Amino acid sequence: MYPILLETIQQLEWEKINNDERKSTLQPLIDFIQLKINSKQQINISFICTHNSRRSHLSQVWALVASAYFNIANVYCFSGGTEETALFPKVAETLTNQGFNIFKIADTHNPVYAIKYSENALPIIGFSKKYDSPFNPVSAFAAIMTCSQADGGCPFIAGAEKRIPITFEDPKISDNTLEQSMVYAERSLQIASEMFYVFSKISR
């Protein structure tokens, strides 16, 4: 992994997550991953939010990084929304500051980004799409609802083997304020810590 990204990871405090309610929220995802590993099946996780522009992308990226960090193989992470918009530029900027190498591979109204966490790893392809996009899995996946609006407004996810609400506060609340960079960085690190907590609990 890139040196700056490793420095960011070293700042995470996933071992200090001691909120019992949050642990209970994360446990179903741990159970899903462990079950797939025990049965030697591919692990497909799709993170879903309303616009697929902020929290779902951060969750997708950090879950993949966590799986690589803990050497958990056959993990494939996706993201989607209840509608298609665009990956919010501040998300790419935040991840860049935290050590990722990010570049656009298509510059349209809905840009496509390549997000790399290591020189030799396949890039994560980041762009906004609906949760049922052909880019995403159609069966045997866990649908992780990262915002309460998507969780409440999308009662059925076709093909999902498991539906798990793990919601995060929207960093969008800080847009156009002096606190924006700080809020996005904090939300990214919170999501990173929780994804690292999840994968730290997996037995191979």
Folded structure, characterized:
- With 204 residues, this protein is an alpha/beta fold.
- It is built from 6 helices and 7 strands; from the N terminus they run ααβαβαββββαβα.
- The chain has helices spanning 3-11, 20-38, 55-69, 89-97, 148-153, 180-200, and strands at 43-49, 75-81, 101-106, 112-116, 124-126, 141-145, 160-165.
- It has a 4-stranded parallel sheet with strand order 2-1-6-7.
- The longest helix has 21 residues, at 180-200.
- The mean pLDDT is 94.
Uncertain stretches: none
Q: Mean of the pLDDT scores?
A: 94
Assembly category: single chain
Radius of gyration: 16 Å
Q: What is the number of E strands?
A: 7
Which structural traits does this protein have?
single chain; 204 residues; alpha/beta; four-stranded parallel sheet; three-stranded antiparallel sheet
Question: How is this structure best summarized?
Answer:
This protein is of the alpha/beta class and 204 residues long. It has helices spanning 3-11, 20-38, 55-69, 89-97, 148-153, 180-200; strands at residues 43-49, 75-81, 101-106, 112-116, 124-126, 141-145, 160-165. It is built from 6 helices and 7 strands, in the order ααβαβαββββαβα.
Helices and strands, with pairings:
Blueprint: H1 3-11, H2 20-38, E1 43-49, H3 55-69, E2 75-81, H4 89-97, E3 101-106, E4 112-116, E5 124-126, E6 141-145, H5 148-153, E7 160-165, H6 180-200
Helix pairs in contact: 3-6, 4-6
